[in-house]
Amino acid sequence: MQQNKLFVGNLPFSANENDLQIAFEQFGEIDEIRVIIDRETGRSRGFAFVTFAEKDSADSALSMDGKELNGRNMRVNFATERNGGRHNNNNQNNNRRFNQ
């Protein structure tokens, strides 16, 4: 698991990579910024990942948790590996009956 990759949540849907670059570049060199986009609508899903070149920079950037960006208070945590997902065959919701 990368300890230099941060999850940034509760973003306004208007937030883009440039907004995040400006907000986080003060903490150190950024390798990658990925705003997650909804495939169907083409709009932001309200969260992103910011990957720093150095772990110390990511540690410092955790101080942005709760800080405002474009009118919303961001949630900033270390990113964690996610198993499965929406299309995982083991997802319990796939077995739900809707027409009973």
Describe what you observe in this structure.
The model is unreliable at 89-100 (pLDDT under 50). This protein has 100 residues and is an alpha+beta fold. It is built from two helices and six strands; from the N terminus they run βαββαβββ. The chain has helices at 17-24, 55-61, and strands spanning 5-9, 30-37, 44-52, 68-69, 72-73, 75-78. Helices cover 15% and strands 30% of the residues. Strands 2-3-1-6 form a four-stranded antiparallel beta sheet.
| Poorly predicted regions | 89-100
Overall shape: it is globular
Distance between the termini: 43 Å
Helix content: 10-25%
Mean pLDDT: 87
E-strand count: 6
How are the strands ordered across the major sheet?
2-3-1-6
Q: Tally the helices: what do you get? A: 2
What percentage of the residues does DSSP assign to strands (E)? 25-35%
Secondary structure category: alpha+beta
CA radius of gyration is: 16 Å
Largest sheet report = 4 strands, antiparallel
Order of helices and strands: EHEEHEEE
Assembly type: single chain
List the helices and strands and how they pair.
Layout: E1 5-9, H1 17-24, E2 30-37, E3 44-52, H2 55-61, E4 68-69, E5 72-73, E6 75-78
Short description:
By secondary structure, this protein is an alpha+beta fold.
What are the salient characteristics of this protein?
single chain, 100 residues, alpha+beta, 4-stranded antiparallel beta sheet, two-stranded antiparallel ribbon, 2 helices, 30% strand, disordered C terminus
